[in-house]
Amino acid sequence: MKPAPSLPATHDLFRMDGMRVLLTGAGGAIGTVLAKAFADLGATVALHDLTEDKVAPLAASITESGGAAIALTADVSDPDQCFSLINDAAEAMGGLDVLVNGAGINRRKPIVDVTVDDFDAITAVNMRAVYFLSQAAHPHLKASPNGAIVNLSSLSARYSFNTISVYAATKAAVSGMTRSFAREWVEDGIRVNCIEPAVVQTEFTKPLWGEEHRARWFEDTTPIGRLAQADELVGSVVFLATPASSYITGQSIVIEGGILAGGNWDSYADTSS
To answer: Of all helices (H) and strands (E), which one includes residue 68?
Structure first.
């Protein structure tokens, strides 16, 4: 039987001092708060996005605040660039301990209007890139004492909405890949987990909550009564990236304000009398 790891003291369980993290899709609202959190906890962070203007100011801000960050660009819809991105990040940081697959796109359309180009574009970034970025990261993570992958899946992997059929399919695939990679790479000391958040209130998701009738629907169907904020994902991702979750792999943390907990069958009762 393998020996258990020697864990940090309780107050250091969530620290990331000395860890080298690659975060894809770092230019978005969720990526930005995650990047700042990693740096605040002591990690060196490689920030990726499609173009430099999306991540260079963030890297500069982190550096000016005393953190360590670099900006990298790549089109992760291209598998060759996935491998280059991993190698560039590992070379720049002297290795890689944590990969956070956060890059994602969507084109919201009814199923009957989805084109082959739509399908290929969404699956290339949301599904194929996760697979090949993880594959490319394998030797670096295997060499790390704390190799971990955290995938950003979605509640739509198990609870879908209209107009996001392809996106939902890719997120179900990411959750499935999380389990497959975790099982296959456990012998290499690499943990693989994911989070499945409900709709997070960002500009990216504004078409889903920006109209009054949809905002009302989210309020009525989410027990907590509001949408998630980007910084409410930080705790779960940091947990999965650090030794605090050393005995957890192949799991999905669902962050959905109680949507899947059940419904209130008295919500339509007449309480006027």
So the answer is: strand 68-73
Burial status of residue 1 (CB atoms within 10 A of its CB: 0-12, 13-18, 19 or more): exposed
11-69 per-position pLDDT tens digit: 999 999 999 999 999 999 999 999 999 999 999 999 999 999 999 999 999 999 999 99
The Cβ of residue 78 has, within 10 Å, a number of other Cβ atoms equal to 15
Whole-angstrom distance, CA of residue 39 vs CA of residue 235: 14
Task: Identify the pLDDT of residue 3.
Answer: 87
Q: ∠128-130-136 over CA atoms, to 5°?
A: 100
Q: Which of 131, 167, 247, 268 is catalytic?
A: 167
What single-letter DSSP state applies at residue 35? Answer: H
Alpha-carbon span 188 to 101, nearest angstrom: 19
Phi, psi at 66, each rounded to 5°: 100, 0
Contact 198, 256 (CB under 8 A): yes
User: Would you call 159 a catalytic residue per the annotation?
Assistant: no
Mean pLDDT of 208-223: 88
For 139, half-sphere exposure in the C-beta direction (CA atoms, 13 angstrom radius) is 6
Domains of the chain: 15-200+231-260 (3.40.50.720)
Residue 7 CA to residue 68 CA, distance in Å, equals 24
Question: What pTM value is reported for the model?
Answer: 0.96
The total of other beta-carbon atoms located within 10 Å of residue 151's CB is 24
For 197, residues 6+ apart whose C-beta sits below 8 A from its C-beta are 152, 154, 155, 228, 233, 254, 255, 256
